[in-house]
Design a protein that fits this description.
Layout: E1 4-9, E2 14-21, E3 27-34, E4 41-42, E5 61-62, H1 68-73, H2 82-107, H3 116-142, H4 147-176, H5 181-202, H6 213-225, H7 228-238, H8 240-246, H9 249-268, H10 285-316
Parallel strand pairs: 1-3
Antiparallel strand pairs: 2-3, 4-5
Length: 324
Amino acid sequence: MAHIATVEREYSSVSKRRTSKSANGTVTIEVEREEHEEIKLCHFHELPDWQKDNEFILTGYVRETNSIKKCLRSLGCFNNESINIYSHLIAAISYFVVLLFYTDILCIPSFPSTTFVDYMVIDLYLLGAFTCLIGSSLFHCMKQHSESHSDMWSKVDYIGIICLITCSLISLLYYGYMDHFIYFKVFTVITLVLATICTICVLDQRFNSKNFRPIRAGFFILFSMSAVIPIGAGFSKFGFTEVLQRIQLRFVAWETFFYVVGALLYGFRIPETLYPGNFDLVGSSHQIFHIMVILGSVFHLKAVLGSYTFMHSNISSNSFTLSS
């Protein structure tokens, strides 16, 4: 009869059993218990240097995990990234569901002049919003893996922001200049050139430095504010009252307010810089920025849908004539 030896290696509560047989007939059963450590939150001073991004957020950190599984498990532990993760994850899923199933039901009232392009333009914006929000959520979930992963996912986050800004501008340009298509083409090319320049810049490692925080915020604000060029051209061509309707300027103004205020709070780390430690888990500048981004994206969607309705109503009544 073969001799059986049991070797037990303790790691934790979940076990795996492996059996091996030696040349002399000894059967060895190894029982390994997989490690399932609880996610422990730590203080700012306990972090490795690369994780020390905001010295005014003192507690609630998930320390470097070097494990994708542990990063995903941190989703079940309320920490100082939880609101950042879930706010944009829920919003991203909502936009994606609307994009896949409800664009024609919830977003686009039908006009005789409505075409497939209208669905594409509105879906383009929804896709841009989804890309930005899901990229942001993934970054905040995976950033504690390691320095290299943090750098990689931060670039995904930045490119998502560029996608949102680009898709936002193109969607409004399309309806704002629907009957003067050459303007749409020119301003779209300008937007794509600026988006390319922004992408090249954010892929530069220096852009990822914490010292570049105010510069990052200002960079994205400037790209967003490039919209003043086509809006100014619209004022010159159509007058204030008509531009107000063509691009639903009141909604664009609210969108701008939320984006700019959110970016400024993020860039200057308000309110935690005033009361360090008081906003570690809830109410920090980055969390406020996330909520502001969601609100801004909703107001932009309202602007696009309102612009679509205004333009097609006037085309149907022969007030506007489409040009190529």
